[in-house]
Amino acid sequence: MEYIAKEAGIGKGTIYEYFASKERLFEEMLKFSMEEFRLGLKEAMDQGKTITDKLLNCSHYNAEFLIDHMDIVQIAMQINLLSEELRVHFLAGQEAIRGHYDLMVKAAQAQGELRADLDDELATFCIMGTLDEFCKQRVFVDQRPLAEIDHQGIVDVVMKGLK
Q1: Pairing with 89, which of 10, 27, 30, 100 sits 20 to 30 Å away (CA)?
Q2: HTH tetR-type domain: from which residue to which, for each copy (predicted)?
Q3: Nearest to 60 by CA among 73, 35, 41
């Protein structure tokens, strides 16, 4: 807490006025990061005109967020280490993100970009899982720079399928 206070240019006691402990401060940081990710992802979606543009934007945003927040994301991925309150908050955030993707899929169906008989819930989970795992692999495991991540390739696989 002393280090944080020094970096913030405030007294350590001031931090304790807002956060009862280091753990509580950390949990609030995780909550803030989750909300920042949700809002940024929604903005990335909204900037695309077609579903392909939206998916490409989501892939770029996902990778950039992972790189910019690598430490906190790695901790958040270990959800079993988090408090019950934080797990509930994290899962609610995931549900909100799923909702954004679901609306995107339904809108693309309504506009004829995706086939009408597509199971929108299944499509949403496939898109979320594919983009999330692809970006985590490239950022955390392969440790590739952003410029070397083939966002268009993963979007092509999602949109064109495996056949």
Answers
A1: 10
A2: 1-37
A3: 41
Residues in the chain: 163
d(CA 110, CA 1): 51
Q: Give per-residue pLDDT as tens, 46-69.
A: 999 999 999 999 999 999 999 998
Q: What is the pLDDT of residues 19-43, one digit of tens each?
A: 888 778 888 888 898 899 999 999 9
Q: Where are the alpha helices (DSSP H) in the chain?
A: 2-8, 12-18, 22-46, 51-68, 70-76, 84-110, 120-136, 151-160
The two three-digit tokens of residue 18, written as one number: 């807002």
Nearest alpha-carbon partner for 89 in 3, 26, 27, 152: 27
Give the relative orientation of helices 84-110 and 22-46 as an angle to the nearest 10 degrees: 0
User: Residue 130 is which amino acid?
Assistant: T
Q: Which two tokens stand for residue 70?
A: 């690598």
Computed from CA positions of residues 162, 125, 101, 137, in that sequence, does the dihedral angle turn out positive or negative? negative
Enclosing H/E stretch for 162: none
In the chain the domains, ranked by start, together with CATH numbers, are 26-160 (1.10.357.10)
